[in-house]
Amino acid sequence: MSLPAPLRIAIAGSSGRMGRMLIEAVVMSPDCRLAGALDLAGSPALGSDAAAFLGKASGVKITADLREGLADADVLIDFTRPEGTLAHLAVCRELGVKLVIGTTGFDAQQKAQIGAAAADIGIMLAPNMSVGVNVVLRLLEQAARALNEGYDIEIIEAHHRHKVDAPSGTALQMGEVVAAALGRDLKQCAVYGREGVTGERDPSTIGFATVRGGDVVGDHTVLFAGIGERIEISHKASSRNTFAQGALRASRFLAAHGAGLYDMGDVLGFDKKASVS
Ligand SMILES: NC(=O)C1=CN([C@@H]2O[C@H](COP(=O)(O)OP(=O)(O)OC[C@H]3O[C@@H](n4cnc5c(N)ncnc54)[C@H](OP(=O)(O)O)[C@@H]3O)[C@@H](O)[C@H]2O)C=CC1
Ligand SMILES: O=C(O)C1=N[C@H](C(=O)O)C[C@H](O)C1
Known about the structure:
Elements: E1 7-12, H1 17-27, E2 32-38, E3 62-63, H2 66-70, E4 75-78, H3 82-95, E5 98-101, H4 108-117, E6 122-125, H5 131-146, E7 152-159, H6 169-181, H7 186-189, E8 190-192, E9 206-212, E10 218-225, E11 230-237, H8 241-255, E12 260-262, H9 264-267
Parallel strand pairs: 1-2, 1-4, 2-3, 4-5, 5-6, 6-12, 7-9, 8-9
Antiparallel strand pairs: 7-10, 10-11
The structure holds NADPH dihydro-nicotinamide-adenine-dinucleotide phosphate and the ligand O=C(O)C1=N[C@H](C(=O)O)C[C@H](O)C1.
């Protein structure tokens, strides 16, 4: 009996922290094949083998030419920057290549562009691909429903010194899930940091606090602070491999599904309630 053909995966942002982790994960997965590797024009890595940093030869050269990098791919996994992802999205749509988007920091208009492209291709959009965070999103929905009065909600996140967006995409998604469970609109109730004489806390708000430093992979805590007790629901990532493995699960899911906009809840078989992103 012959084995099914491997899933052909291209990676965007090949020289980035996640790009390298993803290349390693693809190369190590027997059911996947590295089919393309993209990086920005001007990157010193252009022309070199995508797996050279692992001391291996993948036979795939890093290119800035999107059509060349996507020519042989079923799925592109993209953890870059919003402007890069949107450029990749346009070419994926044209070529019929499915897209796993891990990039964070999109504004509402950019998210709408992604949603529109999902009419033609399968797209997975998730600010955090770890299984653990997506389970935490479900726990948060339940906790927020049960603690809907008398508890102040604060979301605290910590990341490495190189992260460029704040709050993290995960923190924002946690805020959206909690706000939706409470029947609030996050746009109306979010407080992003405090300074000076702020006055007493407004109980209808959801506060965000951001910490940046060192090599923290990604910590998120949602605090429900009541009188006489505090509940903290936390997730701490200790390796980027958890995000890479989630992105591979997402790629396998997309390979088996048609056009549409999906999230990690779909991959994990959750119903749609907690999938605000
Ligand atoms: N969904 C999830 O599970 C996770 C999401 N992330 C998100 O992934 C993104 C990347 O994170 P990380 O790997 O740490 O970042 P890095 O800065 O390490 O890597 C980003 C990569 O994208 C490239 N890049 C930058 N701008 C563009 C552009 N306009 N077009 C094409 N490529 C571009 C960079 O190239 P160059 O180096 O030449 O600038 C680099 O190779 C972030 O948005 C982060 O929040 C991160 C981890 C998990
Ligand atoms: O930039 C990162 O590193 C991470 N970004 C994601 C986010 O913004 O939520 C996910 C993860 O926490 C790591």
